[in-house]
Structure formats: structure tokens, C-alpha cells
Amino acid sequence: MNTENRYPVTASLFMLREIKQRQEKVTRGYQLLKRKTEALRIRGRQAAVEMSATQAVLGHTLREAYISLAAIKFTNGESNALVLENVGQAQIRVLRTPENISGVATVSLQAVEDLTASDTLQYAGLGAGGHRTTEAKKAFREAVRILVKFASLRNTCLLLDEAIKSTLRKVNGIEKVIMPKLRNTETYILMEMGEQEREEFHRLKMVKAKKNQKKIVQSQSRDDEESIYSHDTSNPPCTRFFHTILYQRTDPILSQSDSAGDGNVICYPHNWDDEDLLF
């Protein structure tokens, strides 16, 4: 097995347990990241649909607002200088609301009208075409609200897109690199442990075979000795001690047998005395 596609570990039960625990943790993290990716995709699709609809409404609202501004210029003339000179406090403010979408921190923008701010152009255009000026102000305020909403949705879509890409990279890394390495490592450990078990079994068989062979050799040698003693008629089955005693006796029968020159000692139990049996 290629060592580059597995972790360099030793084959043992401890490492096998560690690898299995890592596999469980990696699988749990992989499932959580998959769920996070699906949740981010769903929320991203919703934000994209809302942004598309808001963009269409924004285009229509801006067109109506600029048409009303053109009508004011036609009736009252150029009024940009008057507006710039009387700019005071902002009547529309942007409220930032933090949100958390499946672990991704985003900011929701919302246009809020400040009622405490003074309107310096409240009575502008009363001399001629005042109603057109009021309609233009309302149209541009609505356009600002929609523009803030569109900016919020676009920011959310960008953040979600980056989060989805990052999460997918993690998911692919776990699926294509980490999980195969853990599986290969587990397979390697199981193979090595199986090989060690077979070697140990073979060693025990060899040891047992040697012991059995040794027992057989010992039994054969014992049988050979017994067969030698059983077939040898010149030496009766008596102990060497009694042979020595019989050689040292001055019995006339034994002395005659010794003088005969045959050199064979005959052990007769009926010729033993009590003195011969004393050790």
C-alpha cells in the first residue's frame, strides 16, 4: 500500500481505536459541513431571488423619481444650488442589524426615517409646482429605501457565496483527502495485525511441532533401551548395584563361573542372603 495515501502509524489496537475515533469525528464534521452548505445555498437562493426582485423595483422607482425631477426642472428651473445650500441633517438613516446565517456573520441594512431631523426644504416649490416637488421627494425617499435594501441583499449574497465556496473546499478536502487516508490507514493496520496474528500462529505451531518431535525422539530412545535389555540374555535385568555385590561375593558357584572364563554373572534371587540386601 502506498504510504503517501495513509498516515504513518504503527499497527496496534491503540492506533486502530484512535483511527476509528477520528473517523467518527471526521464523519460527524463532514455531515455538519454538508448541512451547513445546504443551508447556506438555500439562504443564498432566497437572497438572490429577493435581490433580483428588488433590483427590478429599484429600476422602476428610480425611473419614476428622475421623471418627477425632470418635471420640477421644467416648471421651476434649475434648483440644484438651492438644495445644496440648504442641506442639513439627514432625514433617512441606515440601521445596521447583525445576523448569523448558519455560522456566517452578516449585516442587514435597513433605511429608517428620522422624524426629529429638521426639513429645510419643507416649503420648497410652493410658488410654482409644489405638488410636483413633494412627489419627487417621496419618490427619491422610496428609491433610497429600496437602494439600501438592495445593498443589504447584495452584501448578504457576496458573503454567502464566499462562505459556500469555503465550506465546499472543506467538504471536498474531507471527502477526497482525509477520509480516504483514514480508511487506508485502518485497512493497513488490520492487514498488519492479521499478518502478525498469522506469524504468531505459525510460530506456536512450530514450537508445538518441535516439542512433539522431541517427545517422539525420547520415547523412541526409551523403547530402544528397553528392547536392548529385553533381547540381551547375557545380562539379566538386575541393577548395577546388585551386579557389583554379586561380583564381590565369594560364593563357590559364582567363583566357578568366574574361573570358567565366561565372564557372565548369573543373578539368582534364591541365592541372595540378607547381608546382600543391606545397603
Automatic annotation (TrEMBL):
PANTHER family: V-TYPE ATP SYNTHASE SUBUNIT D (PTHR11671). Gene3D superfamilies: 1.10.287.3240. This is V-type proton ATPase subunit D 1. Keywords: Ion transport, Transport. GO terms for molecular function: proton-transporting ATPase activity, rotational mechanism. It holds the Pfam family ATP-synt_D. It comes from the Eukaryota. Belongs to the V-ATPase D subunit family. The keyword Acyltransferase does not apply. Subunit of the V1 complex of vacuolar(H+)-ATPase (V-ATPase), a multisubunit enzyme composed of a peripheral complex (V1) that hydrolyzes ATP and a membrane integral complex (V0) that translocates protons. V-ATPase is responsible for acidifying and maintaining the pH of intracellular compartments and in some cell types, is targeted to the plasma membrane, where it is responsible for acidifying the extracellular environment.
